[in-house]
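Quick check before the chapter quiz. The format below is the same one you will see on the exam, so make sure you can read both the input and the output lines.
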Amino acid sequence: MYLKGFQIRYENEKTINFSKWDFGGDKSHTNKIWNNILASIRAIPENAYPLEIIDLDKIAAPSITVDNKEEFEDWLKNDFNKI
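Here is the expected output.
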């Protein structure tokens, strides 16, 4: 089954779609794509926060708000992996 992933919203109108896993497994070219998406999220400047994280596969689930880069990294470490 294909999962849609997350939509990361910031600065009220900008979005980045983020897959729920490195969709290429051990293939370096697809891992590179996933890592580039992650790098673009990490590159969002602090003044563009808060980020709103929306689970595109669970429409009824509430969105998550992270207020800074540390909270994003905590979400990535603790909550992202529970999907």
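If your answer matched, good. The chain has two helices and four strands.
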